């Protein structure tokens, strides 16, 4: 699989990726995945390889989009994927308008550039996460993630003081209910 050229993306190492999927559950039984801030798409591709049916890849950087498209061809996943170049919040609203709900959402934005509070609130408000669905958050461990009333924290880990990971699960209901 190809990586995004340059230094604008922070690829998740294979060691961390293996740990992530041990936390998420090593295999899935179908479902829809959203890889927001996708970079090369490695998290979404890994989720498909472990049983997710489809993945929607979003990134706003042209080089990332080009890399994802090349990786889709390389992995022969044209029928399991969609790719859009868009701002994260615009993409979330577009997904909501299409009536999409995801079983797994990857959030790995550039560190200290995007508010997790705003991202999680938007996902809640637009009801984009299926009941029982998971949200994977990767962040600078010096950041504190917000507590969310519809999500329970099911896993937290810190990798070498450089990567913090929290996995939330939707426990039910909708903000609008």
TrEMBL record:
Keywords recorded for this protein, A-Z: Methyltransferase, Transferase
GO biological process per UniProt: rRNA methylation
CDD domains attached to this UniProt entry: AdoMet_MTases
GO molecular function: methyltransferase activity; nucleic acid binding
SUPFAM superfamilies to which the protein is assigned, alphabetical: S-adenosyl-L-methionine-dependent methyltransferases
PANTHER family per record: METHYLTRANSFERASE (PTHR43542)
NCBIfam families associated with the record: 16S rRNA (guanine(966)-N(2))-methyltransferase RsmD (TIGR00095)
Official protein name in the record: 16S rRNA (Guanine966-N2)-methyltransferase
